[in-house]
Amino acid sequence: MKTFRYIYKTSQGVRQTAEMSAATRDEVFAALREKGIRPIKVVAADGSKANGEAPRVSRRVWIALGLCLGLLAAAPWMLARSGKGPSRAPAAAAPGREPREARREVLRLARPLARQVVSGDRLRIANPPAGLFPSAAERYLAYFAEPGRPLPPADATPPAPDAFLACLQTPLRVKADEFTEYVELVRIVTRIKDEMRAYLAGGGSVGDYLAELVKRQRLEISYREQAERKLEEYLDAQKPDLPRAYDYWLKANARLRSMGIYTLPLPDRLRAYELTADLDE
Q1: Which of 75, 78, 89, 249 is deepest in the core (most CB within 10 A)?
Q2: Cα–Cα distance measured from residue 213 to residue 207, given in angstroms and rounded to the nearest whole number
């Protein structure tokens, strides 16, 4: 049996408090109904639940407990971020797998770029690293990347047609931190591969396309050599006409530049004239 405290109002409206012993709260309500009393509230005198269960934990207590547990769980992360907690060594990559950053660099596809003079360090451009192009076929195509550049050396024979067909199936990639000159070179070779792919789709052969590359390169070289010879004629005359030679050098380079062919360097004699002309202006 437990002692229950109940509150009720008398017929005069006076609020009263009394106690009753019973097994459960329901028994208290039943006994009071028999007496004609309508209780306002019935609670256990010892503070436990009216039906004998243990006191119920309030919702606020549960919320506070959840917040405390959340703070405890987040404490290591907060300490590590502030630099006061124990540092965690970076997870080692699984065997045979590269870190995500390295994979991102390797998987960066080269976008096609039209044939043009690659800007930058000429020594670097003339000596690309061996790993820049994965296949011998792509390294051979790189000789034709810049319009008007010298043809491949005699010992640089083209690989078999199957090697070119195989390289067309694999896109070129560049690292994110690669030199700009090499990025441009790879992009131009990517464009040449696209051009070769279209040529083959039109019914041509690998050998025919390579012959077209050589033919185009020779034509571009001839334009540049013609401009060089004409400029030498102006400078080798008995009385060189430096203003006329300088004017031709400007016009010839403008024409070569419009065709994407690398321009003629300024001869030393015209360099001195250019400086004098600039001072006169």
Answers
A1: 249
A2: 10
What are the domain boundaries of the chain?
2-44, 102-217, 221-269
3-state SS string over 146-174?
A: CCCCCCCCCCCCCCCHHHHHHHCCCCCEC
36 touches 60 (CB < 8 A): no
For the chain, give the longest Cα–Cα distance. Answer: 142
Chain segment 62-76, per-residue pLDDT in tens: 677 777 777 776 666
Q: Strand ranges (DSSP E) for 66-135?
A: none
Query: 37 near 8, Cβ under 8 Å?
Result: yes
Name the residue with tokens 């051009």: 195
Phi and psi at residue 170, to the nearest 5°: -120, 120
* Residue 191 CB partners (closer than 8 Å, separation 6+): 112, 113, 114, 115
pLDDT single digits (tens) 22-72: 888 888 888 888 888 888 888 888 766 555 444 555 667 667 777 777 777
**What angle, rounded to 10 degrees, do the helices at 180-201 and 206-236 form?**
130
